[in-house]
Amino acid sequence: QVLIPLRIEGYSMEPTYRNGTFNLCWRWRYLLSEPRHGDVVVIRFAGRRVMLLKRVVALAGDSVAFREGVLLINGQPVTEPYVRMRSNWNLEPRTVAAGKVYVVGDNRGVPIERHHLGQVDQERIMGGVLW
After folding, report:
1. pLDDT in tens, the chain (131 residues)
2. If you ran DSSP here, which 8-state letter would residue 72 be given?
3. First-to-last C-alpha distance (Å) of the chain
4. Residues near 27 by Cβ (< 8 Å), separated by ≥ 6?
5. Distance between CA 72 and CA 121 in Å, rounded?
6. What angle do CA 33, 36, 40 make, to 5 degrees?
7. Distances in whole angstroms, Cα of residue 80 to Cα of each of 35, 37, 71, 108
8. Residue 128 phi, psi dihedral angles, 5° rounding
9. Entry pTM
10. Cβ within 8 Å of residue 31, ≥6 positions away
11. Ramachandran assignment for 128, one of left (phi > 0), alpha (psi -120 to 50 degrees), beta (any other)
């Protein structure tokens, strides 16, 4: 299956992708390429029915941290125009392991403890969103 229909449930990717809207997962997005910083990916969370939409913020070998809500990659602040609301997220630096990417939602207006974020095996990435 090349395209998988997605119904977006939840608020973790707002305002980029809104709760209750539809999109498509393009399975071939990473057939010949690797995910890059800033890509929005579809991650197989549980089986093939539960998938998460998240943004790739760091790649294998990168150091990732949050300081007062600001994303730091390799110690440098990252400009994220897609993030509208920020909480005072703080996360000590950690290095992304080989074969993994670090993902987080765009809606940073809630406490970090309420977010699914962190390192994900690249093999769990089902594809990218179509639009």
Report:
1. 899 999 999 999 999 999 999 999 999 999 999 999 999 999 998 766 789 999 999 999 999 999 999 999 999 999 999 998 889 999 999 999 999 999 999 999 988 988 889 999 999 999 999 88
2. E
3. 18
4. 1, 2, 3, 4, 126, 127
5. 21
6. 105
7. 17, 11, 8, 11
8. -115, 165
9. 0.94
10. none
11. beta
Q: 125 vs 28, 35, 48, 49, CA distance in Å?
A: 11, 9, 11, 13
Give residue 124's identity as a one-letter amino acid code. R
Single-letter code of the amino acid located at 5: P
Tracing tokens 């993994």 back to the chain, one arrives at 100
For 42, the token pair is 């579809």
Residue whose token pair is 């197989």: 44
Name the residue with tokens 């897609």: 82
The length of the chain is 131
